[in-house]
Amino acid sequence: MSTKLTKKEKTMLKHQQQRKKAPVHAAILLAILLIPFLSHERLFTSGTPEATRPENVDYRISMVGDMMFGRHVEEHAVMNGLHIDYVFDYVRPFLAESDYVTGNLESPIVDAENPEIENQMENSALRHKDIHLHALPWAIDALEGAHFNSVSLANNHSLDYGDLSLYETLEHFEGRDVEIVGIGHGLDLSFRAEREGLKDASGISYYDIRDDFRVAVIGITDSYVRGFDASENVGGVFTSPNMDLLANRMIEAKTPRSQGGGDADVLIIHIHWGNEYQVRYNENQRGDAQFMADNGADIIIGHHPHVLQSVSILQGRDPVNDHEDHETLVMYSLGNFVFDQGWTTTKESTIAQLDFLSDGSKQISFIPLWIENATPRETSGLLKPYRDRRIFRMLTKDIDEEIYSVSEGRLVIDLEKTKVLQREGD
Length: 426
Description:
By secondary structure, the chain is α/β, with parallel strands linked by helices. It has helices at residues 7-38, 40-43, 71-79, 92-96, 115-124, 138-145, 162-173, 191-196, 243-254, 283-293, 344-347, 384-395, and strands at residues 57-67, 100-105, 150-152, 179-181, 183-184, 205-210, 213-221, 236-237, 266-272, 299-303, 311-318, 323-331, 336-338, 348-357, 362-372, 375-378, 404-407, 410-414. The strands form three sheets. Strands 1, 2, 3, 4, 13, 14, 15, 16, 17 and 18 form a ten-stranded mixed β-sheet that branches. α5 packs across α7. The model is unreliable at 37-44 (pLDDT under 50).
């Protein structure tokens, strides 16, 4: 009698063997699926850093990208019983150990919890805009707690609720420790602003890090909608049709105090420009950057694309000292810093830190960050090499390899190999 199995018997035996192995396979699959949940903190994310500032740093200026404390960022805080300052939990030491911190605030401050203000918001929302952003006043508390010295409000969301958002924002920032630039009661108000207590949208924010070291910051936007422009008698934001006024402000900032100027050692320009979600800057950005380089800008911080764009060094001029031996460092976009967008490129971020070292040299370094639940944190774990490589590759597309290196997890540009922030006699 033959012992050879029939086709049907073979199929039945195979099914029996698979049923025996099924629990083992299921356990293996479950273990794999649980890795992101049970080990996420250890494998993919970092904790809060310590001792972020080396002893040889005399002055440190930290610069970040777009911040938005409303919408899903606020919802997450409220649902979890958190203060909105939770967004800075993993980067606070980087900011606290800096002498000056600045970034872009991508929304007006509106007290929507005040019933009177809330009733006005629906009628005040601009009808020709699809997206309207705002943040509650606790956002200013968060900025102060994270040691921000200034934020630019020259962008395409600061007047989403028209005059209501303008005057609410100006009122809530009045008397606070965070200076605002790029927004005001009018444009080019000159002495009238000081005399009448008005905020000039084209005004310069000065900060003395030491008695002999001064930072100047100006904010302007090339991305805005109808009705946002500040003018002599109309409040709003400082917009790009006023580039000649920007040039005058830049020269004013760099002019020595003995000649009535601001005598700034570092001039930083915040500019809102470019195309959203495009990783390459456009020709308008390049032209505006050259204009600012030719009028004495030292550092240009770009915002609006919501993704990282490259760093460039442009040959410009120093109009105050009337010589051509001047270069400007342009960060075309620092991407998001605190935001609720979920695409990979919108979650890649950085803190740019400009360091003046005790030996007289200067460098700028970039800390690679990843944003999760609107919270930026330093890259770490299994994905750190991959994320760092993507971030550094994006930032270095337009600079020579000989001037940068990667050290201790940071991208470092040696400014001594450039003419950025080089003064006569250096």
